[in-house]
Amino acid sequence: MRARPTLTKRPDQDDDPKPVGQTRPTEERFLLRVDGQTKRSFSSKEAAATAGAAVKKAYPIVMVTIVDTEDGTSEVIKP
Q1: CB atoms < 10 A from the CB of 64, how many?
Q2: Does residue 54 sit within a domain?
Q3: pLDDT band (50, 70, 90) for residue 17
Q4: What is residue 49's DSSP assignment?
Q5: Which domain covers residue 56, as residue numbers?
Q6: What percent of the chain has pLDDT over 70?
Q7: Does residue 71 lie within any of the structural domains?
Q8: How far is CA 20 from CA 9, 17, 24, 38, 48, in A?
């Protein structure tokens, strides 16, 4: 019976490359939360407010908030 070959790493292989899309996204200052779940982050409050208004217009029942991570404040988007 033949011995099973051992798995060895070649010197030119990386240790553990992560597949594309499986890395954690970078978090910016303003977070857009829909029903308490963070959906996106923005660098400016205006961009977050525009995206939040679009979500609120499409889905008026959900609660949309913008959270400022530096100041610790949050603002609810009204319909």
Answers
A1: 25
A2: yes
A3: low
A4: H
A5: 30-76
A6: 77
A7: yes
A8: 22, 9, 10, 21, 26
